[in-house]
Amino acid sequence: MHTRTLAELAAALRDGEFSSAELVGHYLDRIETLDARLNAFVTVTREQALQAARSADHARAHGQAGPLTGLPIAHKDIFCTEGIKTSCGSRMLDNFVSPYDATVVRRLKAAGVVMLGKTNMDEFAMGSSNETSWYGPVKNPWDLNKVPGGSSGGSAAAVAARMAPAATGTDTGGSIRQPAALTNTTGLKPTYGRVSRYGMIAFASSLDQAGTITASAEDAAMLLGAMAGHDPRDSTSAEVPVPDYLDALGESLSGLRIGLAREFLDDGLDPGNAAVLEQALDVLRGLGAAVVEVSLPNIGLSVPTYYVVAPAECSSNLSRFDGIRFGYRAEDPKDLTDLYKRSRGEGFGAEVKRRIITGTYVLSAGYYDAYYLKAQRVRQLIAGDFQRAFEEVDLIVGPTTPTPAFDIGAKVDDPVTMYLNDIYTIGVNLAGLPGMSVPCGFVDGLPVGLQIIGNHFDEGRLLNAAHMYQRETDWHRRLPDGFSPEPA
Description:
The chain is an alpha/beta fold. It has a domain at about 5-255 and about 470-475: Amidase signature (AS) enzymes (Alpha-Beta Complex), CATH 3.90.1300. The protein has helices spanning about 5-15, 20-40, 45-60, 105-110, 155-160, 175-185, 215-225, 270-285, 300-315, 335-345, 350-365, 370-390, 415-420, 425-430, 460-470; strands at about 40-45, 70-75, 115-120, 165-170, 185-190, 210-215, 255-260, 290-295, 395-400, 435-445, 445-455. Strands 4-6-5-10-11-9-7-8 form an eight-stranded mixed beta sheet, with helices on both faces. It is globular.
């Protein structure tokens, strides 16, 4: 079962090949057998999942099933789930049980999707390797000594090892696309505002966006249709109609103009990744697309801009975690000041504290204009570069990451080097654009991703280009050794 895509599993359920209870039980058994090697899950909701699967089977038997009814999914542990722990990968929230569902969770549940559990992640989504989690690092199924990327590394590893056919993720600076590239999965970050952020614990409010990690672009289209749409409970949610993303799949790429940003082909790009990228461009050309060069002259400023804006917003959003209202509380505080200091000092990890301190500094009196305000101005320059490029082309492509997956521990003590791993993805978040990473080959046995970027709310064109590419290639169907057989 697990070698099939979400779309193929949906067809099998419709045809009565197996029940949802059998399908969900199969994935739960895989998690039980395989996850000790990967550490991809924080919580597994076996009993709730089996009950939801039986309810899905009942609905199908009575003609009440929808396209997604009975399909299993894993949720990144940043989405609030009623009655189930939502930790954000942090000691600070290790004891937090949400009293409500995030809109993403609620909408998928309403569509009949069955939650298998909650996936591990970099603490409060701050990281590029899934090494900052309170629950320990997640390992890459393609090489257990390598990182799976972050912050949605648990979701990516779970889908790559087929412990789940799909998972949700969040992308603040590349945290869906980068782990997708490193694990041979398909990662979709929608336009900012396309999917509600309500109930998604905030890191950087002007950058965070919910999305999906799946085996294929078709699977991503299925899920996005259920997740997207205006939410009155989210002030950043866009009132833009949601098209039928599946209906757009299969359209010819003949006449499509695709821009390759020359700035992406810099000295930091691994030669192997560059060669795989060129092969992917040849496939797109063979499908009828015209690949032309475009320029994003300010994209090189995206990393320093991001690491002013994101920490500033993080320092504000995380101020609520103080040991008073909910979450971790230090034992036997001497006074209120001691309670604040030790609760935050003990509850947050090193990377989170680093970003809180940085963000507080750039927002402080005397530095706001010099850092934060200037970063916001540069952000507008970056967004303007993309808009000028989209006057010439329909989509923009490039590498997702500069290198394949790196060793666990290789960059954890060098934050700047770690931050540079997101150099090709951050600009998309600063501009609020939709972006995808799709599997496009391997370098030394490790997966490489092709990044495809669209204009605002143009997910349909984005998904179709990825789908047509995947019809011509089989990279997305390849599974890591040791994770493809049936569980013992």
